[in-house]
Structures are given as C-alpha cells and as structure tokens.
Design goal:
With about 220 residues, the protein is α/β, with parallel strands linked by helices. The protein contains ten helices and seven strands. The strands form two sheets. The protein has a five-stranded parallel β-sheet, sandwiched between helices. A two-stranded antiparallel sheet has the order 6-7. It is elongated and about 60 Å long.
C-alpha cells in the first residue's frame, strides 16, 4: 500500500518542522515537500504528485495560505487540504468551507491532534472545530464577545476609523461607537488603541488586510 504524499507549507521554521516531524513519524504518510511559501505549494502540486497539503493561513511573503488553498482546490480538487493557524480568527473557517477545503486546525487551541485530523481527512471526513477557540482577552474570554463585537475589533486592528468601520459593516457611526464602548467596558481596556493592539498581538482576530498582506488578490 502506497503512502500518502504530504506537502507542508508554513513560513515559520518551528511550525513547519513540527508538521514535517509528524509526517515522517507515521508509517502511513511520506513528506513530499516542506515549503516556506504558499506560492511554492501551488507550484509544487502543479508539477508533482501530492495527496494532502497542510498549509498555514498567514504567510509573510506573497499569497496567503487561504487564497493559495482555494487555488489548489480549484486546479486539483482531488488533493485534500488542511488549513492551520496559530491565531483564533474564526472567520476563515467559512471562507475555507466555501472554497471546498476539507479541514481546518487551530494549532494552539484544537483539542484534536494533527495526526487525527490528517487521518480523518484522508478517510473522507471534513473536520472543522465545533466551537470557537476559548482565548483570554482582557477581563473576559473570546466567548463573552458577540459576533458583531468581534467584527468591530477585527476592523480596529486594521486601524479603521469609526466612519470606515460603519461603512464596512453597514451600520451607523453611533452604533460603532456604542459597540466599542461596550467592548472596552467588558474587557477593561482603557483605550481603543490598547484594545486593538492586544487583539492583534494575541491573534484574537486578523483583518483581511493583514492576512492578504501585499498580495491583495481577494
């Protein structure tokens, strides 16, 4: 029985090494390639056989992992993909599902191990977390924030003004101000700058501009 050929794409050496180690330690998988950019993963599967791609969403260079995974699924629907992230940004899950990506794994927060996710994915399952990651944020956890409050915080991390946030979310400026005040009261942060910086540094949310970086293809 032939082994499952796995491509790993992650720009962080430690994470990529962790993934590669897991693949090499299994009798069912073999490492086809360990790559540091998402574009390299696209190029590899275009020219070489691969059965499974494990790819981080956030990449410092070029196309991001989510966009790259969508391209791979479009060109090679037979290749299974597991997207991973060390953040707790949940909006990517639906985007991944819409792109036909089989599975999504939170490195820091998922109760299931990577090998289990790999096995289940290769057995035909689509594995996504049942609940959002429980991440401490100020005096509360992520669970204590509403979906709208999470959206507001995501836009704050992109340094958006109240007017820009209102326009993006199709709500009034006064509603934006009220949400921000409520968030600050819940979390205990004393300024919107502290709020945004903490959300960004802890990976609570990631704005689309930060994910896409210089490759604004979405």
């Amino acid at each position: 029985m032939s082994k499952t050929r796995v491509v790993v794409a992650d720009d962080q050496n430690i994470s990529r090494g962790f993934f590669e180690m897991y693949v090499r330690a299994s009798s069912n998988y073999e490492l086809a390639a360990g790559l540091r950019t998402a574009q390299a993963a696209i190029d590899y599967v275009d020219k070489n056989q691969a059965d499974l791609v494990i790819m981080d969403v956030m990449m410092q260079e070029g196309i991001d992992g989510l966009s790259a995974a969508a391209k791979i699924k479009q060109s090679h629907p037979e290749i299974k993909v597991i997207l991973t992230t060390s953040t707790s940004e949940t909006s990517w899950e639906q985007k991944a599902k819409d792109a036909g990506i089989e599975s999504f794994w939170y490195k820091e927060y998922d109760e299931h191990g990577l090998m289990e996710i790999m096995d289940r994915t290769m057995n035909g399952e689509s594995v996504y977390p049942e609940d959002a990651p429980k991440v401490p944020f100020g005096k509360i956890t992520r669970d204590d924030l509403t979906d709208r409050e999470i959206e507001i915080i995501r836009e704050l991390t992109a340094s958006k003004t109240n007017e820009e946030i209102a326009d993006k979310l199709h709500i009034s400026v006064n509603t934006v101000k009220r949400h921000i005040q409520n968030i600050m009261e819940k979390t205990g942060f004393e300024s919107r700058l502290d709020l945004a910086m903490s959300a960004k540094s802890t990976g609570l949310v990631v704005s689309d501009s930060d994910r896409l970086g210089n490759d604004q293809t979405e």
